[in-house]
Amino acid sequence: MLRFVVRRLLQLIPTLLGLSVLLFIWLNRLPGGPASAILGEKATEAEVARINRALGLDQPVYVQYGRFIKRLIEGDLGTSTQTGQPVMDEFLLRFPATVELSLMAIVLAVAVGVPLGYFAAKRRGGWLDVAAVSSSLIGICIPVFFLAFMLRTVFSVNLGWFPSYGRLTTGINATEVTGLAVLDGLLTGEFDATWDALSHLILPAIALASIPVAVIVRMTRASVLEVLGEDYVRTAESKGLRKGVVRTRHVLRNALLPVITSVGLLTGSLLSGAVLTESVFTFGGIGSFIRTAIDGRDYPVLVGFIMFIAMAYVLINLLVDLAYSLIDPRVRVH
Amino acid sequence: MRIFKSRVTRAITVAAATALIVTGCSSERDTTEGKGKDGAKDTFVFGGAGDPGSLDPALASDGETFRVTRQAFEALLEHEPGGSELVGGLAEKWDSNDEGTVWTFNLRKGVKFHDGEAFNAEAVCANYDHWFNWTGTYQSSAVSYYWQTIMGGFAKNEDKDAPKANYKSCTAKDENTAVIEVNKASANLPGGFSLQALAIHSPKALKAYEKEEASAKGDAITYPKYSQQAGTVAGTGPYKITKWNKGNKEVQLERFDDYWGKKAGVKNLVFRTIDTEEGRRSALQAGDIDGYDLVSPADVKTLEKAGFQVPTREVFNIFYLGFSQEKNKALQNKDVRAAIAHAIDKDNLVKTQLPEGGVAATQFIPDTVEGYSDKVEKYDYDPAKAKSLLKKAGEEKLKVEFCYPTEVSRPYMPSPGDLFELMKSDLEKIGITVTPKPAKWAPDYIDATEAGGCELHLLGWTGDFNDAYNFIGTWFAEYDKQWGFKDKKVFEAMEEASKEVDHAKRVKLYERANEVVMDYLPGVPVSSSPPAIAFAKDVNPPLVSPLTQENFAEVTFK
Amino acid sequence: MPLLSVDELSITFTGRGRRDVRAVDGVSFDVDQGQVVGLVGESGCGKSVTSLALMGLLPKKGVKLGGRAEYDGKDLLTLSSNAMRDMRGKHLAMIFQDPLSSLNPVIPVGLQVTEILERHRGMKGAAARKEAADLLDRVGIPDPTRRLKEYPHQLSGGMRQRALIAMAVACAPRMLIADEPTTALDVTIQAQILELLKELVDQQGTALLMITHDLGVVAGLCDQVNVLYAGKAVESAGRRELFAQPTHPYAHGLLGSIPRLDAPRGEPLRPIRGSINDRIDWADGCAFAPRCDHYTLECLSGTPQLTEPVGAGHGVRCVNPVLTGVEVKTLGVPAEQAVDAAAATAPAEPAEPKIPAQAGPEADGKAETDEGDAAPEAEPEAEKKKDAS
Amino acid sequence: MSTKTDKIDRLAELTAQQESSSGASLWREALKRLRASKMALVGAWIIAVFLLLAIIGPWVAPYAPGQQWRGEVFVNRAEFVGARAENWFGLDHLGRDIFSRMLVGARQTLLLGVVSTLIGLSVGALIGSFSGACATLGGRVGQRIDSVVMRCIDIMLALPSLLLAVSVAAVLGQSMTTVMIAIGVVQIPVFARLLRGAMLVQGGSDYVLAAHSLGIRKRRIVLTQIMPNSLSPVIVQATLSLATAIIEAAALSFLGLGNPDSAKNPEWGVMLTQAQNYADSAPMMAVYPALAIIITALGFTLLGEAMREALDPKLRG
């Protein structure tokens, strides 16, 4: 087990190295430079040259790459040209918000997607099935930012049910423990903070969950359909087991295995979605930070984010594999 | 352990359930928010368009930062509320010698900094000396832009390209008299003394600042820690900064009870960042914020209809269509430039694209700035004339590249892409072929225009203080790649005006300079328009300022 | 009174936009306490569907059931699904064909045994585990306590089938249905499993409905045999009677197509022509007619009735029954001996008179099923994993 | 590995199996099932209408997409002109006819979808078949190469597609071409995986073994046997990719990376993004392009999914 983990982590190194070369080449191919991004309207040539010198951008490429790598190894992803703070600090600051939002979205997606997929499969061809399948297809086809936008207009501007932006209402100064506002509120007993955070989370989470829900509904449905046709379900039925037992122990337990994998690996689409939803709701996570980085051509942030995702992807992959081996006795990691 | 666990689980369940119920109920949410013990609303939330860059205004050069710091820091001079006249700030009176090199300030008495320090002449000098003695990264123009603009370089310039220092000294003549000397008269004074970047900090805070160093590492400049969190910075303003919650994108300020002037109307002031126009609008409509700036012109009417307050500012900016004559030689012909000027339907642009209060421009400064001339040549909308001018120049098949920035909203141009579309169709009407060259605002677009890489481009300027040089001086005082022309008449007119120390005479010279510039026509001034600002129904809004220097201490709730 | 009495059972699959398919068309048989009744036929003949119908395991939608199936005075076909749930596993139990796919792969074997004890016998925790271990022990699984913790993929094929049998007999049901319990197993294991089943029937007096295509199994185990063809019983007789005198041309052909060691070299096998797909509707005549060597025009005049041309209790659905017995001259031994030979060889020396299709057991469920292209040369008994349904 | 890859691999596996088992008849089978599928029918209809609009749209559009109504109807900022006789869908924020822009936009949208899918397909096919060829025919070194390539491809799949697009746009500047390339790049890993999967399955299939044992050169086997047989999964994936491309394009516009020359060549995504700024005063301006995007994407998704189901016996009843 441990060897497996170590080996997988070692595999990460060449991947990240390769990625770093690509990113460095990309950075060097970029037009413009950080100097003018810093200076804005007021840049003059002399000032640009001064800044470039200060940043070491006048040195040979290999020296710059060397420094780039050295800094990466030190966990230094550079400094944001927009905020003037280390990219790593910015990520760490905003990471909990995105984690919270993603978790909420995944929880929502699972809570809605699994039962829906299950019953769609059970009543295959029935109205529920048709509704579930078609709404999941439509869910995939609605641009996430448009959905977020609609949700905000309807539930926040028109109905006033939920706040239209942000993570917490001003004036609610929750004590930070984990950085996850909802959890912090619970841990410290500040329940008003918890439900304030929750109410801020709901709309973005729904928007963000739209694609995962669609994926999970269809995965669950296909998987349940497959499992329902399996002999062991018939065996379970032939034993006269109660419906609930058959459903949970024999159908869902098996049917959810592929769904679990997919949930773990929705990272990519979740982060893409987070960039869009967070920026619609001005949710102070990595997503909206990346959005402003895109607008402001904050390349250190973008590069750092790509490295970050690549790492997260590999790690999540690893976690999913480990989790899988715990759930499915047929899979054992060596 | 076990007890703890089960209690937590129960708490989670209960909380989640209640939360769902409570959030499902709209009235509940609105009433619990931002209220003090007595039930009156005591928190004013204002939506900004971007996060501030630092809490030390001396390190900043952008409006979003200044909007926040302005509530907590005051400079020697200020602008009159709702106008652009210079009035006393921390200095009650000011004066200069005839050469404009020695500036004497009679300071206000009984002023206290947020950290309890007393305000006096020594504090003023400590600030100016602090800036003058900046070293290292602080000398980067990215950090100390305004200092360098107003006062030139530093005690020890570390970079040979840095401007020569114009600041000479500051002496505390007595407790309440500070004297600031400069080497050379400058058109930027006394206006510069009003800049938020030169606002006065507590000497105790300055000492703390000096322990930290901004650093340039990697690809960008890292701001010092003290400027990134509340606690160290201390000014004299009606509010003190209590918390900067970057994760929640908000800066919290609290009423400073020892403020020398009228105390702030609302106890808590909060600036929250909402990056998009429609996001800010939604937040105001949903009742989540009490006001926001940079209202999209299209939203003004609907907001007003719904009962929101959208007070109109006076104009203090200029939006222009620039020509880079070196990039396209045809533009070196005055007839071609005039043809383009006659082709642009400015009134249509103003009417359909700019906020209420916008006006078509005739020269490169708004009419609110001293030095505005009524006698400049006006190039009225006249497609027929434009066509004939083109014909005269022999450029009937003129082709131009037209740059415009994307994804940006500047106070003088709310949506550049749309303005571009309208101008493009104007130009096409007189037979000019237009190639669109869109680019991201920073750095791509800025780079391109600065380097003279854009034949036609859209840019503008919002004044820092009421002096025409702050506008035209930055463009036409000498050869500039952006414009790519050398015209003796223009340069001389500028030089003459900037050297004049006498205020009234200088204004006259500016008028003349504007006439010369418009005669030469280096570009087409298009419009001056006030960025719209909106407030909730239950707010008594502050006097809106043409320089977007609203003082939120004036705010009260109805 | 028989324990289970199936009377004119018919099962029709209906589907939107598709023609109704009558998979079982008026099958009747009885099973007495302690009796082993065989349902024999090639794939698609309706035997597995019959068993599923009796267990109430057919889907509600798209299936029409007709006739009666009385168990202990209750009609299994009309019982509510909850009542049926109470019956299953407790009174009626079933053993399936492919032990690997019939066991839940991600649950330890132990839980799969104890869950039925919990459900029907109210046993919990350690008691249930102990009983489960006893059960495994009883069906001949060594080291049962360890096995309880293992997962199906860790057991051998024979052990898996034993585990399935243990589950089936856990509540000492009075009626056991075994659907091709040996098909997926190695031949040596097959014999052991049959032996085990036989023991259980003998010891507990359980009634066993044996569904198979394997005549060896029939000969070794069954008291009463029903040969099914295209959803109808074409011949129904005691084991000895059937083997002595297979009267329906189909049954006759089935027995005749068993390769035998004692046949002379070079003697060709005599398979039944065509496949079960070459059939006509029972309403129009004998469904077997297209493949029958003996058919006459008479065969196409309406459904043939079940008659008893060779003796009481030996029903045959044919207008031209074969009355000569299995072609004794080619077998070279008297009919009576043939039965014994088959019976004797089946469990004990299984390698010998087996039906060819069984040589390679289908180890897992992933094997292809291409029902459509069984060539005439192919063995008609080539039973596929999945019954046509 | 992920759901995305899972589906892709499964598709490759299935079609490859079918091809090798009995070729054309299975195509026919699938086609028959497809024709019976309501999903496919709805999808095909939507696509047909869309294609028709894309082809004739610019010709039948009543006005030039860039034409602006000035003065007489579009004044005073927030007052938008709604639907009326001359302008069926009303005027946009610059006084342009929305109906005409929608029609012209259909072609832009189609062009964008097709070109970007082709980019993704061709580059993806190249990488995928290279990797697959290495894995099946290249021995141990080949397998090493294959695993490295596939790991990179997996990471590419994991990266948010928007970031890839931003990266491309950053280097190439902003234009319609950039948008197409950016979206195409996002599709590369999908197609690469698909083709590699198909090749691996087929590489081990009987007829390839047979060809190999007959002494046919490896390269020839790849070219003549494996490649043509990987066609059907590619068609399915390409259909789905068209939907993705349309949605991605909208997301790119939202992030300000869309087609900049939207006056003459309006594209639905850009139209939607622009309309959001006016959502309060002219909501219909957003509704038209949004519906168009959703419905068109739905059309391609429906057809693609129906095709996938038709090919996959597991998903059938």
Automatic annotation (TrEMBL), chain A:
InterPro entries: BPD_transp_1_N, MetI-like, MetI-like_sf. This is ABC transporter permease. One of its GO terms (cellular component) is plasma membrane. Pfam families: BPD_transp_1, BPD_transp_1_N. Keywords: Cell membrane, Membrane, Transmembrane, Transmembrane helix, Transport. One of its GO terms (biological process) is transmembrane transport. The chain crosses the membrane at residues 9-27, 101-120, 127-151, 197-217, 255-281, 301-324. It is found in: Cell membrane. Residues 95-324 form the ABC transmembrane type-1 domain. Belongs to the binding-protein-dependent transport system permease family. PANTHER family: DIPEPTIDE TRANSPORT SYSTEM PERMEASE PROTEIN DPPB-RELATED. It comes from the Bacteria. It is a multi-pass membrane protein.
UniProtKB/TrEMBL annotation, chain B:
PROSITE patterns: PROKAR_LIPOPROTEIN, SBP_BACTERIAL_5. GO terms for biological process: peptide transport. It is a lipid-anchor. It is found in: Cell membrane. Belongs to the bacterial solute-binding protein 5 family. GO terms for molecular function: peptide transmembrane transporter activity. It comes from Streptomyces albidoflavus. One of its GO terms (cellular component) is ATP-binding cassette (ABC) transporter complex. This is ABC transporter substrate-binding protein. It comes from the Bacteria. Keywords: Signal, Transport.
Automatic annotation (TrEMBL), chain C:
It is found in: Cell membrane. GO terms for biological process: peptide transport. Pfam families: ABC_tran (PF00005), oligo_HPY (PF08352). One of its GO terms (cellular component) is plasma membrane. It comes from the Bacteria. Transmembrane segments: none annotated. CDD domains: ABC_NikE_OppD_transporters. Keywords: ATP-binding, Cell membrane, Membrane, Nucleotide-binding, Transport. PANTHER family: DIPEPTIDE TRANSPORT ATP-BINDING PROTEIN DPPD, OLIGOPEPTIDE TRANSPORT ATP-BINDING PROTEIN APPD. This is ABC transporter ATP-binding protein. It comes from Streptomyces albidoflavus. The lineage of its organism: Bacteria, Bacillati, Actinomycetota, Actinomycetes, Kitasatosporales.
UniProtKB/TrEMBL annotation, chain D:
This is ABC transporter permease. Residues 106-304 form the ABC transmembrane type-1 domain. GO terms for biological process: transmembrane transport. GO terms for cellular component: plasma membrane. It holds the Pfam family BPD_transp_1. Signal peptide: none annotated. Keywords: Cell membrane, Membrane, Transmembrane, Transmembrane helix, Transport. The chain crosses the membrane at residues 40-61, 110-136, 148-172, 178-195, 234-257, 286-306. It comes from Streptomyces albidoflavus. The keyword Metal-binding does not apply. It is found in: Cell membrane. Belongs to the binding-protein-dependent transport system permease family. CDD domains: TM_PBP2. It is a multi-pass membrane protein.
